[in-house]
Amino acid sequence: MAEAYCVKDKQKVEVVNPEKITMKNGKPAIQGTCPMCHGKVFKIGG
Hints:
Elements: E1 3-6, E2 11-14, E3 16-22, E4 28-33, E5 40-44
Antiparallel strand pairs: 1-2, 3-4, 4-5
């Protein structure tokens, strides 16, 4: 699973429902939700 930094919880968390996306500049990223606060988390890079 992917790890991302949650700004609300101020710690690295496992991404729930990770989804590979492409940013506007063409770079890959992973977007999902935080398991603790259910907010969005985002990680640049595949």
